[in-house]
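USER: Study each token:
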Amino acid sequence: MPTRDTQRFRAHPPPVFPTEAKPSWWTEVHEAAWTRGADILSYDATPSVLLSAEDSQFALRYGVGAAYFYRELREWSPRLEHLLREEWRELGTGVDWSLAEPLVHRGWEWGRVDLLRQPPKGRS
């Protein structure tokens, strides 16, 4: 039987990346991680004077996916931030990194926690 959360999710699915701004490494694994975190992280994506709700969710989503893709980098560091900042610019989102970075960081933190919750490969 569907729960309220699943009913709400079906009624309001999380937004998707615009095709032209999707990182080249984005796969079903990253999509699944975002789907698990979308409702929780969407509370962080409230519109502000500086960023729309859509841009905020895009930054959070990117951070979640980055936590999975750059899994060998276990802590937020200048090296990781540099990689993400450069990739963010290449995506051409139109959103300045200085505005997106706090939300990318928040999404990355959630993604790291979610990654640790996943069973090791080969196990269910």
